[in-house]
Amino acid sequence: MQDRDLRLDGNAAGGLLNEIFPFEMTSAEATCAGCGTKKPIGELMLYNHGMGSTLRCAGCDTAVLRITHIRGYYRLDVSGMSHLRIAE
Amino acid sequence: MALQLKWQIGTAVEIRQETPSVKSLIIDLPDWTTHLAGQHVDVRLTAEDGYQAQRSYSIASAPEDKYLMLTVERIGDGEVSPYLTDVLEVGYQVELRGPIGGYFVWNAADVQDNGPPLLLVAGGSGIAPLMAMVRHRANSNRRVPTKLLYSSRSYDDIIYREELDRLVASDSSLRVLHSLTRQQPENWIGYGRRIDREMLAESAWPPDEKPLAYICGPTALVETVANHLLELGYEPERIKTERFGPTGG
Amino acid sequence: MAEKFISRGFKGRARETDTTRRERVPPGQFETNEFPVLSAGPTPRTSLERWDFSIYGDITEDLKWTWNEFQQLPRETVTVDIHCVTKWTKLDTVWTGVSVDTLLDDIDLDAQSDVGYLMAFCDGGYTTNLPLDDVRGGKAWIAFEYDRQPLAPEHGGPARLLVPHLYFWKSAKWVRGFKLVRENRPGFWESAGYHNYGDPWKEQRYAGD
């Protein structure tokens, strides 16, 4: 099994992100805190683990954004993201 | 403009068998607004005991079409696609939300006929969002030079084959190149292997024309093609990708 | 409140359990014959030449084994049931590995009794926290074979932690060592809303359960 079999891209997280942010999020630009790369969320590598979603930098694999949705709370771990730019 | 998508319920008004393992569902959604070619919806299934499963499917219909079309490949061990291809019937309802996506989109209004050429690369059911683009392009009478390189397992697995033939016949600015990876019919003159660097070097637009590329299909194909296009000199910001996962949908 | 929409004819994956094995399946779980791969990141591929397992932390000892040294340690083959918090349970899985008791033998834990916890750390950055008592007394292994075959990378190979009495996210894939500590700090999933301990028989899935 290849890594490719386990990942999608951030396009598939668009629906989930729209539950949290009332904007179109796949084109929102995230800056990776690991390597400084700026990419639209649609270009991040999405690992949809059954326990939560992890969006990783395509360049350095840093977890740019991690999201769980548990008992009425969305928890976002944004420690891998230094900036996020969202078009209104 | 802020938006918050809501789950909406549509009714299947038509089901088309596109290929032995692929069906198109044509859905009437009273609350639908509009969409851009390339966007997708999330489909959510709920069992009687409350269990839910959810998957994303690209919208294959053009924004101008009356109903929404989703083209679904049956994945054997999947949870959602076997329901959509084996159980859902005309008249059944389906819950979905959308349109989703602002990155992997193509809008004819943003494009000039003499603008940079368009390269669309599809693997299997990855043709769905690119077909929305091709249909929208035709509806808008856009003649921007467009090449679609489309990889399928065999001739019978080519989704929308006849419609693509008709569009090509009536529009000289659209070219479709097929590659059949497992089986080719006798007298086949198209490509007969997985998309590789040589095929792209031969068939893709030259990089100095600053083409815009959209690649969609299984993750492995998308990443291979994207890497080759970069090697051939395409600009990274002008390569847009949408991965479907291991088996394409 | 609006009636919930039901997808006509949708049943989902088989979610019933054979009643003869029911008592081995914790509450809220269902049995599977598959072995799903769940991943939060790319599969690390550490070569055996570079692999090592360390134990260090708030202790006086600092231990490390190379792969060859690890393979010389006494090993066990065990058959255990495993339970994933995403609700699947797999019965009678067979693993081969080194008992964590063997690894902790060289540490004088009685003299350092205030060190009560560990953080397991892994290639790829995954972490999970456990009380020390939950990896001692024949309850945990560093496993490098599944079903008597070398553990596949997507299932955690070359070696993973195996702690079957807790939810399977505690059985950290691609484990490279333990940091022994005095304070219990949450790891990767524990800090994202999952339970700090994770006992499947008490359905401790989420923080606050």
Folded structure, characterized:
Chain A has 88 residues and is mainly beta. Chain A is 8% helix and 42% strand. Chain A has one domain. In chain A, strands 1-4-5-6-7 form a five-stranded antiparallel beta sheet, with no helix packed on it. A three-stranded antiparallel beta sheet of chain A has the order 3-2-8, with no helix packed on it. Chain A is globular, with a radius of gyration of 12 Å. Chain B is α/β, with parallel strands linked by helices. Chain B has helices at residues 81-87, 127-139, 161-170, 197-203, 219-232, and strands spanning 8-19, 22-28, 40-46, 52-58, 68-73, 93-100, 118-123, 146-152, 174-180, 212-217, 239-243. Helices cover 5% and strands 29% of the residues of chain C. In chain C, a hairpin with a 4-residue loop joins strand 6 and strand 7 (127-131). The mean pLDDT of chain C is 93. Chains in contact: A-B, A-C, B-C. The A-B interface holds A 2, 4-5, 7-12, 14-15, 18, 22-27, 40-43, 87-88 and B 1-5, 40, 42, 56, 97-98, 100-104, 218-220, 223, 240-246.
Secondary-structure topology with pairs:
The complex is a heterotrimer of chains A (88), B (249) and C (209).
Chain A: E1 8-9, H1 14-20, E2 29-32, E3 38-40, E4 45-49, E5 52-56, E6 63-70, E7 73-77, E8 81-85
Antiparallel strand pairs in A: 1-4, 2-3, 2-8, 4-5, 5-6, 6-7
Chain B: E1 8-19, E2 22-28, E3 40-46, E4 52-58, E5 68-73, H1 81-87, E6 93-100, E7 118-123, H2 127-139, E8 146-152, H3 161-170, E9 174-180, H4 197-203, E10 212-217, H5 219-232, E11 239-243
Chain C: E1 30-31, E2 52-57, E3 63-66, H1 67-72, E4 76-83, E5 88-99, H2 100-104, E6 117-122, E7 127-131, E8 141-146, E9 149-150, E10 160-162, E11 175-181
Parallel strand pairs in C: 1-5, 2-11
Antiparallel strand pairs in C: 2-3, 4-5, 5-8, 6-7, 6-11, 8-9, 8-10
Radius of gyration of chain B: 18 Å
In total, the number of domains of chain C comes to: 1
Number of discrete domains of chain B: 2
Strand portion of chain B, in percent? 25-35%
How much helicity do the residues of chain C have?
Answer: under 10%
CATH topology of chain C: Sulfite Oxidase, Chain A, domain 2
Please report which band the strand proportion of chain C falls in: under 5%, 5-15%, 15-25%, 25-35%, 35-45% or over 45%.
25-35%
Average pLDDT taken over every residue of chain B: 95
Give the total of beta strands of chain B: 11
**H/E element string of chain B?**
EEEEEHEEHEHEHEHE
Shape of chain C: globular
- Helical stretch count of chain C? 2
Oligomer state of the chains in this structure? heterotrimer
CATH topology of the largest domain in chain B: Rossmann fold
Largest interface, C-beta within 8 A:
A-B, 24 and 26 residues
The residue fraction in helices of chain B comes out at 10-25%
Structural class of chain C: mainly beta
The CATH H-level superfamily of chain C is Oxidoreductase, molybdopterin-binding domain
CATH class assignment of the largest domain in chain B: Alpha Beta
Using only CA atoms, what is the Rg of chain C?
Answer: 18 Å
Would you count the extended β strands of chain C for me?
Answer: 11
